[in-house]
Structures are given as structure tokens and as C-alpha cells.
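Troubleshooting log. The previous structure file for this entry was overwritten by mistake, so regenerating from the original sequence record. Sequence copied from the archived sheet and checked twice against the printout by T.R.
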Amino acid sequence: MEATMYTTSRRSIHPTDVIARVMVWPVAIVPGEATLLEVAEALAADGIGAVGVVENGHLAGVMSERDIVHHLAQGSNPEHVTAADVMATDLVTARPDDRILDTARRMIEAQVRHVPVVEGDTIAGFVSMRDLFEVLVEVASHEEDVVVVPSGTRVVVRQD
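Regenerated output below.
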């Protein structure tokens, strides 16, 4: 399953826009009983860093490439450990109408790189730090302005 961008152009996107403008969909999901090996194969096939873990048709957690590496480093057998065993369940989430900048701040505070975008308990998309960084780079490359990045640092962007 290959992820596609929700938006057609980044040129008109600003950090105060809604997260739905940059979220990726369709979302890669795996069942809770998927093994670490199966999840790693799904991540590699789609070129992504995280998947949603679904149980009983609802988002139950998120599993990232870091989760896999951590468990492999501890000696876990990737064919016997499941996504349900490893997934993060204390999730930082966004809603499609959340502002990009607010979502970036929550991700920094929680120290997460991937956030599911949810409507109720249904996953509508995913957003990564890379997606948000692209927005900031796009803004910086098209505006001569002062940009406030999520860390609160003021950056003066000059066009020469």
C-alpha cells in the first residue's frame, strides 16, 4: 500500500493551516497480531516510518521503526513478537482541523515523530515531523518574513 499526499500543492500551505492539508493518506495499518517482521516489511515496502495498529476495526496504537529497532536490540524474535505487544497506546493524536503549528508543538513536547490524525476512533491520516518540516521549508523559501518554528525560536528568513 503506497501513501499519497492529501494535498495537491504545498505552496499555499502555512503553519496556521489545518493538519488535513499535510496529512498522508491512505494510511498504512496492520492488525495487532502482525509480527514485527511483517510490520518491518510493511514499513519498508511503503517507505514510511510508522503504521497504525488496528484492533476490532479501531485504532489501538501506533508502531514505528524505532519500536522495532528497540525490541530487536533487546533480542526479541521478530517472528514471535506482535504489533500489539510493541505498539504505543498512549497516543498523541491530531484532528483534521487542528492547526499544523499546534500539532508540531504537541509532537515536540511528547517527543514523537509520527502522529495519527483521527476522527473519533477512526484513523483518517498520518503526519510526520518530515511533513511538518517541509511546510516550514516551503514557507521560508517563498516569504521574506519572520517565521516562528515550533521550538519558539524566531528565525529571520531573507531572500537574496
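The CA atoms of residues 4 and 25 lie 6 Å apart. Archived copy saved in two places this time.
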